[in-house]
Write a structure and sequence with these properties.
It holds the Pfam family HTH_IclR. It contains 7 helices and 9 strands, in the order αβααββαβββααβββα. Strands 6-5-4-9-8-7 form a 6-stranded antiparallel beta sheet. Strands 1-3-2 form a 3-stranded antiparallel beta sheet. The protein is α+β, with helices and mostly antiparallel strands and 236 residues long. α1 packs across α3.
Length: 236
């Protein structure tokens, strides 16, 4: 069982760091190089990873790993759509479904507002964990720190202590918010969709900044928290 767990941990770390070498993976996981090397060989023989650039020193995930991930996303989308539609009906705003991937969250589904003034984000876009509502909702349930906190706007949180305080507040109220921290014209509230081992996704209500005053932010925050909880329960 320990060998299986180590192999899965190595696969996850390769996906985050790819292309990644043995030493880098061992340091990141806190495992001996010999253990990481055995796991890499097992994953390679099973078709989950392949050498990057033709050598056997750095590794990346294969299409097999991506196919499994896409099938999981489809299942998540199917479960999320009715919850997202109900949230859109209640708010009249754009609803986003994002999944954590490394040091970002990735947009995998959206339901748009019918209001003429809207902000459309393309599917597949990556948003930083520390500077987006979806990212902070996920980050609040992760134990690992963010290595870098670059500024995107004047309101981006770049101080580690301030970010820790913000994430503690997310835990208390149940949702994260974004006050123009990634783009100054966007406001959002988001809540994490939780599985047995932590966050698997996040749901958000996203609006132009002018349409989210503080009272509406609280209202939408409560709604998105209930929606994320319902999706978590439907996923088991």
């Amino acid at each position: 069982m320990r060998n299986v767990i180590n192999a899965l941990r190595v696969l996850e770390e390769v996906a985050i760091r790819q292309p990644a070498g043995v030493g880098e993976l061992a340091r990141g996981l806190g495992l001996p190089k010999s253990t990481v090397q055995r796991s890499l060989r097992t994953l390679y023989e099973a078709g989950w990873i392949r050498p990057a650039g033709g050598g056997l020193t750095r590794w990346q995930v294969t299409g097999k790993a991506r196919q499994v991930g896409r099938r999981a996303e489809f299942g998540l989308r199917d479960a999320a759509m009715p919850v997202m539609e109900d949230l859109r009906q209640r708010t009249g705003e754009t609803i986003h479904l994002m999944v954590p991937e490394g040091d970002a969250v990735v947009l995998i589904e959206r339901l748009e507002t019918d209001k003429p003034l809207r902000i459309v984000l393309p599917l597949g876009i990556r948003l930083p964990l520390h500077a987006s509502a979806n990212g902070k909702a996920v980050l609040a349930h992760l134990s690992r720190p963010v290595a870098e906190l670059p500024a995107y706007t004047e309101t981006t949180i770049t101080d580690p202590d301030a970010l820790r305080a913000e994430l503690a507040a997310v835990h208390v109220r149940g949702y994260a918010d974004n006050r123009g921290e990634w783009r100054s014209d966007i406001a959002a509230v988001a809540a994490a969709v939780l599985g047995p081992d932590g966050p698997v996704a996040s749901l958000s209500v996203s609006t132009p900044a002018s349409r989210m005053p503080d009272d509406r932010r609280v209202e939408y925050g409560k709604l998105v928290t209930l929606a994320a909880r319902a999706l978590s329960e439907s996923l088991g």
